[in-house]
Amino acid sequence: MGFSLVEMWSAMGFSARVVVFILLGMSIYVVGVSIERWRYFNKGRKVAHLLVTALRELLQKEGGNSLLKAQEIAKAHADTPLASVVEAASGAFMRKSNQLDALDLVVGINRAVERSIERQTDVLKKGLGGLATIASTAPFVGLFGTVLGIINAFHSMSKTGSGGLSTVSAGISEALVVTAFGLLVAIPAVALYNYFSGTVDKLVVDMDEVASEMVEAVVLSGNKG
User: Fold this and answer.
1) The model scores a pTM over 0.85
2) DSSP letter (8 states) at residue 13
3) What are phi and psi of 47, to 5 degrees?
4) What's the domain range around 170?
5) pLDDT (tens digit, 0 to 9) for every residue of the chain, 225 residues total?
6) How many domains does the chain have?
């Protein structure tokens, strides 16, 4: 038997092939989620920078009344998490500014912002649970394939009645290939999960900062009034 991938695939048993297909499915999921999240976060970071800069200038100039204009800015970037939080805060301000006193208005805006941040955090974490699951389970799936390969090797020995290297080489190579494939899937999944989790944390911080500044603008506006 040769040791090319095609020849080793031909020598694999049915169970080992099933394990390989499972790992292949995991790798496709990792690649798909990574591309989608990278595009989403890359766009979110760029829009967040522009939105934060515009909002801070607006809030410093116009105080609480700027929340009305902030909603217009947020609508222009409605498909990003930070814009959703801004829209929630400005929407709460417009709905309740004529009905509540300053303290109750701040409380109402805070609640609206907190709910929006929670929803947007869930959106940001989309697919990351799957990455974490694959990162933790892929090595064990590969190990399962390793066990199947060793079983295949011993099965070959029992059939031939010989324990030579040529008899067990197919099963051992099968076991090592599946093990390597499992690690090849798990290691990038771990790295990508950590990277995207860090990005989520940074975007959540941005949302918290902008929400705090918007509430502060309402308080300052109320004090001036």
Assistant:
1) no
2) -
3) -65, -40
4) 5-224
5) 455 666 666 666 777 788 889 999 999 999 999 999 998 888 877 777 777 777 766 666 655 556 667 777 777 777 778 778 877 777 777 776 666 666 777 788 788 888 888 888 998 999 999 999 999 999 999 888 888 778 777 776 777 665 555 556 666 777 788 888 899 999 999 999 999 999 899 888 888 887 787 777 766 655 444
6) 1
